[in-house]
């Protein structure tokens, strides 16, 4: 198999992962109980909007939910992010957001102590500058919500 064929297969796999999160989002909805943190954000250039709810106890993200409207990249990214940060220490969730931002900018990043999981499927978004804001909307909401939390 040539390098080109491997890249095509990898791109296809990544598209499947993104579409799976879009069609079957994880952590989508509203918390039954009041959340500790609620952040509403939107991307006026494309119309994506998100509401992120977080529960934090003893410096750990114990629950996270999102709702909103947007493109497949925006909603998939929110699903992946919520899945990844639930159970993480606030400090580690913010570190993950930093890594994700670097990934979207095409910069080098060190993910040796954090498992990116499905999030890695979004790496290709960096090739499309107009879509980066779609992918980062939920991450910006998470950073805003957690930035003042004790770690």
TrEMBL record:
Residues 14-134 form the NIF system FeS cluster assembly NifU N-terminal domain. GO terms for biological process: iron-sulfur cluster assembly. One of its GO terms (molecular function) is iron-sulfur cluster binding. It holds the Pfam family NifU_N. It comes from the Bacteria. InterPro entries: NIF_FeS_clus_asmbl_NifU_N. Belongs to the NifU family. This is SUF system NifU family Fe-S cluster assembly protein. It comes from Calidifontibacillus erzurumensis.
